[in-house]
Amino acid sequence: MKTLPSRRGAMTAGVAAALSLALAACGGGSGVSGGDATGPAAVPSKSAAVQDALSKPAELTFWTWVTGIEKTVARFEAKYPNIKVNVVNAGQSADQYTKLQTAIKAGSGAPDVAQIEYFALPQFALSKQVVNLSEYGADALKDKFAASAWNQVVINGGVYGIPQDTGPMAMFYRKDIFDRLKLEPPKTWAEFAEAAKKIKADNPDNFITSIDPGDAGGVDSLIWQAGGQPFKTSGESNVSVTLDSDPGVKQWVTNFGTLLKDKLVEPQPGWTDEWWKGMGSGKYATWLTGAWAPGAIMNSIPKTKGKWAVAPMPQYDAATPMNAENGGSSVAVIPQSKNIPAAVAFAEWLNSDPEAVKSLNEEAGLFPATKVLLDDPAFRDVPWEFFGGQKINQVLGDASAAVRPGWQYLPFQVYANSIFKDTVGQAIDGGGDLTAALKSWQDRITAFGAEQGFTLSNS
Amino acid sequence: MTAVAQAGRSTRGRAAHRSLKRTRRGKSLSLTVIMLVMFAYAVLPLFWLLANASKTSGDLFSTFGLWFGGEFNLFANIDQTLSYNNGIFLRWFGNTVLYSVVGAGGAALLATVGGYALAKYDFPGRKLLFAMVLGGISIPGTALAVPTYLLFSQVGIVDTPWAVLIPALCSPFGLYLMRVYAADAVPDSILESARIDGAGELRIFRTIALRLLAPGFVTVLLFSLVATWNNYFLPLIVLNTPDWFPLTVGLNQWNAQANSGTSGAGDATYSLILTGSLLSIVPLIIAFLVLQRFWQSGLATGSVKQ
């Protein structure tokens, strides 16, 4: 879902990493994946099995931490009364991945279907811990989803999850502050820095935004938005990490290095008491984050009602706008499932049926991944009272369309994110050298990847 | 402090009384300051928790942290916490009580029986056993959580209360403590006379040793109670179904939920987490206040010379 992955307790992330290490050492050779040996010829029969499964009795367990999703699941059960789905919240993000991997390793106790964030999906896919849905005909769903969402579930030519929600980045800003200082929302990063100086001049204690030194996902997204692609995986085991040479990374370093040096952006761990107070008081004038943010703002600082608005992300080159994703989840099927066809059918319905996606958006508060909703005027043209009546979904929907394709996460991103805080995070927090810190992050990622049996390169 | 002062008085005699009094006053002033600092250190977080648990979610991030918000909303928050998500909080509360009472009670009982046996019976392998217990203390429980999971998964008790209860029953530290305690608290002469009077070993344990060991038992009980009540990592690993979560894991789940952007359709869970945390420490405070008496008497018993 809309998580900032690295915000999880460092301990759980560490354990997840330790586990993934242990598990990867065991390799994918456990033979759990029933679909491995099946050739393309088997595809039609398997997709037929998926269709049939909807009318046969089945019981599925679904691990997810999306609150309110029970309502969408209830709609599924009403429509297909033969299938019973147990929704279990087994923990969030790294917590859940730790459990999922231990259960897969143990050979029992894993659910049939599980929520997995995009950044973690390659890890599960390459170690064959999730079912390749291509074998069950999931490719047919491609056109139903926004390209930015679908691209994130295709790994090595296979489809390893059905996109559930997305987090195209946008700039949430305090309209009251911008209006008072007679500022327009910045269209480029240069304008962003100018606006930041004016906000600083107005009150030296205020900042245009904050950056979370522990949030690897947030920085990944900003690098993505700067045109970077520092992580590349080809085949099953060739990984390239170019945090020290990628032009997009350099662009981000120049931009944020200056903003941090001039004290225009404050390093501040997100989601803390202090941070929310800053968000509420107007200490931070913007929040650069995923499209899932409105719910968080409305729930946590309800007293700022009417003061917020949304604008597209500032650009490096206004002529060629680029955007990135921040957060978002897919729904994957676990090979341990005793009824994979039913599990696939459920995952597909849940995330692509028009009734389901409408419910996910309205009843579970997820930002959609499907075109049917993103292009729907009824979705786009709703005025949001909290945002002073702005039709924010128009901005966010366009932000989704502008996402730059081609970004890849590491096949051990969960670990990489867990050590971000000790390397790049230190430099962000203490005003250190970002380039050197990114190099040391790269070195640790490279060393870890090699230990895991991947072939690493830095070019 | 008093003990130190008394010892000083008796050894140095009356001649030094006057000057001693002056140094004592100076000492107690600095001690008082240190104590006040420690007091603030211990109480401020609790006060912060109380103050913030009584705020409305609107006031939570818009009013001063170390004081109460505009309106006193504690009871409404408690009400909301107890009823949120079909009253899952009460279920977690019950689970924690179950794990703590059965786990800590069992651990204290086993440690008492085992410690007594190690201290008072001479049998082959006694030293080896004791060395293994000492080794057991030095391995942190967190390190054993994953192996424990794999073991339990083989037996098929993962995701059941047993997976939390069984490890809670084993307290190497408690066993060590009870062995040391039993060695001194139960005089061999009493055991011998009881044997001469014809009492069986079980009867000696029940009627004589257990009573002498009671303060030690309570100490171990308190230690295990706190450890089980606060246990987080093991239940996090071995439990998947929220219905079996203890408070620690449950509250963390709420926290993760609040920190993840939207938490569904309009739930202000930060207030629930704070109120839930406040409620979750109340029983521990009560347990300490009630059992403190036994603990103190236990410490005093040790100082009496046999």
From TrEMBL, chain A:
Region forming the signal peptide: 1-24
Matching InterPro entries: Bact_solute-bd_prot1 (IPR050490), SBP (IPR006059), TAT_signal (IPR006311)
Stretches that traverse the bilayer: none
A Pfam family annotated for this UniProt entry: SBP_bac_1
Classification via SUPFAM superfamilies: Periplasmic binding protein-like II
PROSITE patterns, alphabetized: PROKAR_LIPOPROTEIN (PS51257), TAT (PS51318)
Annotated keywords: Signal, Sugar transport, Transport
Matches recorded under PANTHER family: ARABINOSE-BINDING PROTEIN-RELATED, BLR3389 PROTEIN
Protein name from the UniProt record: Multiple sugar transport system substrate-binding protein
Organism (species): Thermocatellispora tengchongensis
Lineage of producing organism: Bacteria, Bacillati, Actinomycetota, Actinomycetes, Streptosporangiales
TrEMBL record, chain B:
Alphabetically ordered keywords of this record: Cell membrane, Membrane, Sugar transport, Transmembrane, Transmembrane helix, Transport
Annotated membrane topology: Multi-pass membrane protein
One Pfam family hit: BPD_transp_1
Region of interest (Disordered), ranges: 1-21
One GO cellular component, as annotated: plasma membrane
Record-annotated membrane-spanning stretches: 28-51, 97-119, 128-150, 162-182, 212-234, 270-291
GO terms (BP aspect): transmembrane transport
PROSITE patterns in the record: ABC_TM1
Biased composition (Basic residues): 11-21
Signal peptide residues on this chain, from the entry's feature table: none
Location in or out of the cell: Cell membrane
ABC transmembrane type-1 domain residues: 93-291
Stored CDD domains: TM_PBP2
Matches recorded under PANTHER family: ABC TRANSPORTER PERMEASE PROTEIN MG189-RELATED, ABC TRANSPORTER PERMEASE PROTEIN MG189-RELATED-RELATED
Record-given protein name: Multiple sugar transport system permease protein
High-level lineage: Bacteria, Bacillati, Actinomycetota, Actinomycetes, Streptosporangiales
